[in-house]
Specification:
The protein is mostly helical. Helices cover about 70% and strands about 0% of the residues. The longest helix is centred in the C-terminal third of the chain and has 24 residues.
Length: about 450
């Protein structure tokens, strides 16, 4: 949420609240630390004056015109200082003090001025603690750094943002639900800043599967906590889905994973969950300046995800969210248009891409292969090569049966396909399958071998 020229970060989870309360109430011997030369006597004096005060009074004192410069300098200087590990209480106190002060626009304005004068000077003191071995120091620093980085004035080095994202992503693999939820909340805040989305996506192969794994682990849970957990994950993906490069990569690497959204909209009891899932699907199927890719994605969701009846059922329900209704209408219209032009060969290529074969005419009908032979031959036998490449996959016996049967039907119609088999070194693979433990696979391998022999000596 933005108030004035600054953004407010409100964390719903209460994971840090008890720690903050305990840290605020703990008395710290500042003068003793000054005598040990851990800080100056003047710094000790400033911090001692805050002892025993309420949060409100502390904020008022620190941000007063008389004291704000001195206190801000003291806080930044001490956080940036290399203190002994056993003095983590100083770091914790300062990090909690900062988290309280971040509610003050005067404090944020002061940090903004310092940052403009010396880039990264207000980020680095927090950044250095996000890999602390003390978990509380680490989490408090992560929270405060996230709060600072989402401010409109923030222009931190990319390395700072990237390392923070990496640290947060690692926390989403925690066994603690509350810690995972805190990390997800902060990831969502980071992704709310447009320029950070590309930084996140540079390492999508590390981060995105973790998001999907977390979503799948809670997809069937309808507790309030699980619904909020789902919502934060979907919100993160939704924010990413407004980047064209992200949408292209989702299409290339994660399309099968996105089928989870179709499952989610069928079982979710919350409109806000359905709204985000539908909006993401709409973005993936209407990629700006990539009409062909969008169409291929729709074909995939039609043939593999059975999206049309799912959308039909959703459209029959009453919704209070107007944006959901609009997105549903737009997605339904796009899907219907593609569905009306869908061919049996589209169905075949989708099965091929998904490596998921069904007992249908595209495999059993000789007429299908006769009508579509040219499609298997197009682009230097591109589809046929994709088919025979599956011989090297570790598949279920039934899949081998479909692949070998389809190869036989093509060899029967096109003797030149033998040359492709030879160049791609797949004739030997077919012969190896003559020894497969499954009798159906052996039978289809024998049929294919017979066609190879008969066509070779024609």
């Amino acid at each position: 949420m933005t108030t004035g020229e600054f953004k407010t970060l409100t964390v719903e989870g209460t994971y840090l609240d008890d720690y903050r309360s305990a840290i605020r109430s703990k008395a710290i011997p500042w003068e003793g630390f000054a005598r040990s030369e851990l800080l100056t006597h003047q710094e000790a004096k400033y911090l001692t004056e805050l002892e025993g005060e309420t949060v409100t009074k502390r904020i008022e004192k620190v941000t007063s015109d008389e004291h704000i410069d001195a206190y801000t300098q003291t806080i930044i200087s001490l956080l940036d200082k290399d203190l002994p590990p056993e003095r983590s209480d100083i770091k914790k106190y300062l990090l909690v003090l900062v988290s309280d002060l971040l509610a003050s626009e005067k404090f944020l304005s002061k940090l903004s001025s310092l940052e403009r004068a010396q880039p990264n000077s207000t980020f680095s003191p927090f950044f250095k603690h996000i890999d602390s071995t003390d978990e509380i120091v680490k989490l408090l620093a992560i929270h405060d750094l996230t709060y600072l980085l989402i401010q409109p004035y923030a222009d931190a080095d990319e390395s700072i943002v990237a390392e923070l994202i990496s640290t947060l992503s690692a926390l989403t693999e925690s066994t603690s639900f509350n810690l995972k939820y805190l990390a997800l909340e902060l990831i969502t805040e980071i992704l709310s800043v447009k320029k950070y989305r590309a930084i996140y996506w540079k390492s999508h192969n590390k981060y995105f599967p973790i998001l999907l794994q977390n979503l799948n682990s809670h997809i069937s849970h309808n507790s309030t906590e699980s619904i909020q957990f789902q919502y934060k994950i979907l919100l993160s993906i939704w924010l990413l889905s407004f980047n064209t490069d992200v949408l292209k990569d989702l299409s290339k690497y994660y399309l099968s994973d996105l089928l989870v959204f179709l499952k989610l909209v069928k079982i979710s009891i919350k409109e806000k969950i359905i709204r985000l899932a539908i909006s993401i699907l709409l973005n993936v199927t209407s990629i700006p300046a990539h009409e062909n890719l969008s169409t291929e994605n729709i074909k995939f969701f039609i043939l593999t995800g059975d999206i049309l009846p799912t959308l039909t059922n959703l459209k029959e329900r009453k919704w209070s969210d107007e944006e959901l209704v609009e997105d549903l209408d737009a997605l339904f219209a796009n899907v219907q248009e593609v569905y009306s032009k869908l061919t049996s060969f589209d169905e075949y290529t989708q099965e091929l891409a998904a490596k998921n074969f069904k007992n249908s005419p595209v495999h059993t009908s000789d007429e299908f292969f006769l009508d579509n032979l040219r499609h298997f031959q197009d682009n230097n036998y591109k589809v046929f090569k994709a088919l025979i490449s599956l011989l090297d996959e570790n598949m279920e016996p039934k899949s081998y049966v479909y692949v070998l049967s389809d190869i036989s039907k093509i060899l029967k119609l096109d003797s030149k396909a033998i040359e492709v088999l030879t160049k791609e070194n797949k004739k030997t693979k077919i012969m190896e399958l003559l020894n497969h433990k499954n009798s159906e696979v052996r039978y289809e391998a024998l049929k294919a071998t017979q066609f190879i022999v008969s066509q070779t000596f024609k």
